[in-house]
Specification:
The complex is a heterodimer. Chain A is α/β, with parallel strands linked by helices. Chain A has nine helices and ten strands. Chain A is globular, with a radius of gyration of 18 Å. Chain B is mainly α. The chains are: A alpha/beta, B mainly alpha. Chains A and B meet through helix 2 and helix 3 of A and helix 10, helix 13, helix 14 and helix 16 of B. Chain A: InterPro entries: AAA+_ATPase (IPR003593), ABC_transporter-like_ATP-bd (IPR003439), ABC_transporter-like_CS (IPR017871), ABC_transpr_LolD-like (IPR015854), MacB-like_ATP-bd (IPR017911), P-loop_NTPase (IPR027417).
Chain lengths: ~270, ~425
Amino acid sequence: MLRAGSRRTHGTRPTHERGPAAEALRLVKVSKTYGTGDGAVTALDGVTFGLGRGTFTAVMGPSGSGKTTLLHCAAGLDRPDSGIVCVDGTELTGGGEAELTRFRRGRIGFVFQQYNLLETLTVAQNTVLPLKLAGQRVDRGRAKEVLASVGLGDRLGHRPGQLSGGQRQRVAIARALVTEPRVIFADEPTGALDTRSAREVLLLLQRAVRAHGRTVVMVTHDPVAASYADSVLFLADGRLAGRMDAPTADAVAERLAHLGDTVTTGV
Amino acid sequence: MFLLAMRSIRHRPGRFLATLLSAFLGAAIIMTFNSMHDTAAQDGVDSTSAETLSTAAGVVGGYGTLLVFFAVASALTVNVRQRAAELELLRCSGATEAQLKRMVVGEAVAVALVGTALAIGPAMLGGRALLEVFQDSGQVAESVDPVFGPIAFMTGIDITLLASAGAAFLAVRRATRGQERRGGARKFLAYAALLTGAVSALATFVFSATDAALMAPPAYGAILLSVGFALMAPRLLEAVLDRLPLSGAIGWLAVRNLRERAGQLAGILMSLILFTAVATATLTMQAVESDAVAASGLTKSIDAKNLETLNFTVVGIIVVFVCVMLVNSLYAATSYRVREFGQQRLAGATPGQVLGTVGMETLVLTVTGVVFGMAAALAGIVPFTMVRTDGVLPGEVYGIGVAVTAVAAAVTLGTSLATARRMLRTPAVGAVAVAS
């Protein structure tokens, strides 16, 4: 069923030996259905794959293919109906929202299309918010350093409302990086940005992987954005429908255009 | 536009509940008291009874009009602010400002009509009960029958409709015009209120212990001081925040949120200050007065009894209205933040931390409001007590203060925590997706 050998991990890059798990993320037969009865929609149908540490993976597919559900289930924002999700070798189990939140802290960082920065806080305060909430000591120097590395060293006291979309998304990346998470999930991070800002954001995500050994999983519908990743996972009708390593924008677009065909011919 | 107004009410009755409740309560109170005019106007009522009834109707009717206006205005302001996106959409679709105004005013008038209609029954019963209170205390002759006539009916409808239409007009104008420009005027009014309040409270010492009007200067003083504080609410809040040694994620976030939203929260703080000051000052002074009369061994005159009834009624009405306003504006302000709560949760806040932050914010707000309200109340209570009795601070003030604080805290904390809890039921990802 899963033609592209989705269990294969992409381990060409030297992994940083910081923890016991070689795989940053593993999903086993994850299924999720919304609604009941006739109106039920199967968003994920037995998805299984693993991602090695220090990899940059794009998840692509047509609208309604289940990419956002996949991201939410893998990131512990939503609970799958069945199947196993492991982040950094630890299984994400059920439990209340508080438990899931504590699980995500330090393991998972987020970058969203709509930034989701708090309007009442400055750039610097937004960046250190996850540390504050986790009750960790806040290293202001470190926060400054991270913000400088995304090119916002001179915007510490600004509010999100005073920044451009690209700048806001870079703040969101700094916020995701500051807790040094094992996996960063990015949901259409360039969806609301112009081409130049999008390129800056994608290069930053790429650098987080190459220079700092983070693992990035990015949901996108844009073949150009996907071409910045090391590999692309294709999703159609809630199932994995292939994988492409070292993607180029043209190849990804070509593959996407024929994704419907391969599924109907029963791959 | 009127059709659109009717349609928007029919499809979202929940949104108009706050406005409806304010209009209903207002109309009920106005009609209850104005039915005393009707009762007094019938044949065969002796002059003392008629005077008692008319005074009650006049004083509370006047207070009631103001309160209806404020309550409906606060409900509508929130309503219009939450519908900013919808109004913007209508404007983009070609609606002129006048059309929007007609729509919002039309909605408000329709809701006010329904509220008034619903209030007629309760107001009739209320009028009966009020008359019985007056008769039991001997202020009105037993032979007087309750009447619910044209005065009650007309004033109820007129005042509620006018207040609703006026409040709606102002709310939509504020929303479409954008920024306010009353900074200087507001400051001037605040200082003027504080100054006249202080003068009025000090004027108490000019009176002698047995003067009938002794209660007036300190009561006005306390009310004016609380109005002054209320007008300065945003700056008072900022001053308090500057001195707050809160640490930890919850305190840190709460202080920053409050600082950022100080302007919006001013309305809530204003209601809190006024409520605390008026309730504490009036109830305490009335208690001191009753004690002093009892100690002197005299029986109360009809006037003194009237004053007592009026005091309690006015406080009762203010308490009910301010509670409705607080619940309404806190509910709206908190439910408006569902997206922000979602963002906090995605940034790593547990539901407990979100609730803790909301609780901390409300606590700071409540304590600030109660402290300044109590300060204004004491400015009236102390001079009154010094002139009326030999003491400085009456024993009653503690019990009354605790009771008033408890009501304020229960209303504010209860509303904002219950609302926040409900908002947390939406999954975090869904909450940030809501186009607020």
